[in-house]
């Protein structure tokens, strides 16, 4: 697992969101997604998964994906500006193109436990090792 590469990918995504120009779409990412990313970094998820951002989608790939964007990933997605939900999915494709295998709308302030569970499922599907303690901590399941 390339921990430094994973951390750098998260740092780039967070920097891009937190330093984006003032615009309604970027402001939504700053207020709805950035707090989740910062909390995930504190929980050390950035050591475990690679992150990538694309407009209103933040994608998380399993360790050792070696730059491949194929296969399972967890995605955080913001949809229409009037929709207050954050959508979390676990699927093998980008959710803007097809209905995901698993997708759930959650309010951003309650999203972290669901995000943690989806990352656990991603780990179970892609890594032949036990789920790391960072993904099992009780505080990860408190909104």
Report on this structure:
This protein has one domain. The chain is built from four helices and five strands; from the N terminus they run H-H-E-E-E-E-E-H-H. It has helices at 3-18, 24-42, 112-126, 133-136; strands spanning 50-54, 57-61, 73-78, 86-91, 102-106. The chain has a five-stranded antiparallel beta sheet. Strand 1 and strand 2 form a beta hairpin. It starts with a helix and ends in a 7-residue tail after the last helix. 31% of the residues are buried.
Strand content: 15-25%
Note poorly predicted spans.
none
Helix and strand string, N-terminal first? HHEEEEEHH
The strand order across the widest sheet is 1-2-3-4-5
Average pLDDT across residues? 89
Spatial gap, N to C terminus: 29 Å
Q: How many DSSP H or I helices?
A: 4
Structural class: alpha+beta
**Helix fraction?**
25-40%
Tell me the layout of helices and strands:
Blueprint: H1 3-18, H2 24-42, E1 50-54, E2 57-61, E3 73-78, E4 86-91, E5 102-106, H3 112-126, H4 133-136
Antiparallel strand pairs: 1-2, 2-3, 3-4, 4-5
Helix pairs in contact: 1-2
Which terms summarize this structure?
globular, 143 residues, 5 strands, 38% helix, alpha+beta
Can I get a quick summary?
This protein has one domain. It is of the alpha+beta class.
């Amino acid at each position: 697992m390339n921990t430094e590469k994973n951390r750098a990918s998260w740092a780039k995504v967070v920097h891009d969101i937190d330093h984006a120009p003032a615009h309604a779409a970027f402001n939504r990412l700053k207020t709805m997604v950035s707090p989740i990313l910062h909390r995930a970094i504190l929980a050390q998820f950035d050591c475990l998964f690679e992150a990538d951002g694309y407009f209103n989608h933040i994608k998380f790939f399993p360790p050792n994906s070696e730059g491949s964007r194929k296969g399972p990933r967890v995605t955080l997605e913001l949809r229409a500006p009037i929709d207050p939900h954050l959508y979390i999915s676990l699927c093998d494709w980008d959710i803007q193109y097809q209905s995901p295998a698993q997708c759930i709308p959650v309010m951003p302030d309650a999203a972290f436990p669901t995000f943690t569970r989806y990352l656990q499922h991603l780990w179970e599907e892609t890594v032949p090792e036990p789920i790391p303690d960072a993904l099992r901590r009780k505080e990860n399941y408190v909104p």
